[in-house]
Amino acid sequence: MILVVLDNDGKTLRKGALEALSRAFALKEAFGPVVGLVMGENPEPAAEEAARYLDKVLSARIERYTAEAYAAVVVKAAQTVGAEVVVAAAGRTARSWTPRVAVRLDAALLEDTLASRPQDGKLVVERYSFLNRVTETQAAEAPVVLTVKPNTTEVAQPGEGGSVEVLEQAPGEGGLEVLELIQEQAGRVALTEADIVITGGRGMGGAEAFDQVEELAELLKGAVGSTRAVVDAGWRPYAEQVGQTGKTVQPSVYFALGVSGAVQHQSGMNKSKLIVAVNKDPDAPIFKISDYGIVGDVRKVLPAMIEAVKKLKN
Amino acid sequence: MKYVAVIRQVPEGEARLKIEDGRVELSSTTMILDQMDEYGVEEAIRLREAYGGEVVVVAFGPERTKEAVRTALAMGADRAVMILQDGYIDPVSEARALAKVIGEEAPAVVFTGGQQADWDSQALGGALGEALGRPVVTWCTELTLEGQTHAKLKHDLDDGAEVVRAPLPVVVTTQQGLNEPRYPTLPNIMKAKRKEVREVPAGELGVTGSKVAILGQLVQERQRKKVSIDGTKEPAGAAQELIRRLHEEVGAL
């Protein structure tokens, strides 16, 4: 059996959930039927949606997210259905609870995978390592916990439909007590799913300058990204950080505006199909991995880029 | 109180990676203390400076990892346990071995890097927390102790951040911005040479093998066009040229 844990926002399934479903379906022949699990404060709507894709969906209400609570429910669900493979989208939260599940199920953990296939009874995956510079092939025997890198897989299509079962569970024990939640407005386009990403770095000079980054993003239907320095300075929300310690993106076009391109930043974007950089320092490392670069002051170049795009769109 | 910083040695981020027989070959690569682990060493030292106690470094890896241990001791850690393991072992199996050593030390706070720069893995902290039966706070940017029993921590989420109170002991994974790690001074480098480093073969901690096998590794760097447009004199003209070429030459936008 395969258990696929379906990421949701309390209303609908996230795109990552539909990618995880596709991966799970592709493993059916080797590892058996797929059962879904929807967790959250309000799992019912997403569980109903998931039942369009699956024969059986488990729904578990969890008052508040903690890695311990999620791991406990996933372990219980995996044991209940007898799953040998657990699949989930590799968001920051899933990457917090999946190692716990791997320890409890004495399973191998295959993290943040680009692709997966069964081979001789094993699960073989591709993933990046060494700051996103190396492509690695890994193999493990079941039981396995597999996480799916966002934007790597076609989303699943609905099937004949099935039913939802409620998974009863004991209330979680103590642990972390939340004192303050700093929630950020999600952008129009999710950063890890965007086809075009426009990232501003310290060279933008200040928070106000990001109005223009936003404007360009709006024109191109892209998402806004930023660097750790920008996030630390409080110019932009944490959720927009691209890099080793933020999000990893690989859009069709990546704009690096006033970004010097430290290795830590590169590891979050070096797999982009096309990289465009604007920086006043001709020796900035970002130019070494760019397809197109303008050496110049981003604060003068960016407004002209916006005008040129507007003209192009007309 | 005792604070443990888990450390590993990884290639320096800008070092060229050599592939031999389908594997990354590191024997001639510049190796450093993983910068994400370095934040943990620094934070542990700061806790000792603020509240007293002892900083123990627990390192995992082959013989050469001792260089990273020396760096951590020179920064100010008091002593080290070096778990010796040749060859790849997956983070979850490694966490089980680490938990045996760390469990015996019984620290109040355990630090590990938010992501390892060689594996690009985020699993070590979570697996360590599970193996120790303790809560984990991932991607931590601020930490203060509240007496002997709790810590208050700020950490990054997928979309935002959170301030939490955690009962001690707690496992903390580091995030950039947690602190600014200090450079070892010459006197401290000399002092570090006399500090205790206890060696434990991983086999003695029940490590039998990796649950994950690496079948192959390759460096796939995309060939970049590297078109450079001078925008120093006429920024507007350069911007127009860029947008036109993106549209005409690669069909982007």
Based on CA atoms alone, the radius of gyration of chain B comes out at: 22 Å
Residues in helices of chain A, as a percent range = 25-40%
User: N- to C-terminal separation of chain A?
Assistant: 53 Å
Q: What's the mean pLDDT score of chain B?
A: 95
Unreliable residue stretches of chain B: none
Quaternary state reads: heterodimer
Briefly note the structural class of the backbone of chain A.
alpha/beta
How many strands in all of chain A? 16
Number of DSSP-assigned strands of chain B = 15
Poorly predicted regions of chain A are none
Average predicted local confidence, pLDDT of chain A: 94
Helicity of chain B, as a percent range: 25-40%
Gyration radius over CA of chain A: 21 Å
Strand percentage of chain A: 25-35%
Order of helices and strands of chain B: EEEEEHEHEHEHEEEEHEEEH
The major sheet of chain A is characterized as:
7 strands, parallel
| Spatial shape of chain B | globular
Q: What distance separates the N and C termini of chain B? A: 57 Å
Order of helices and strands of chain A: EHHEHEHEHEEEEEEEEHEHEHEEH
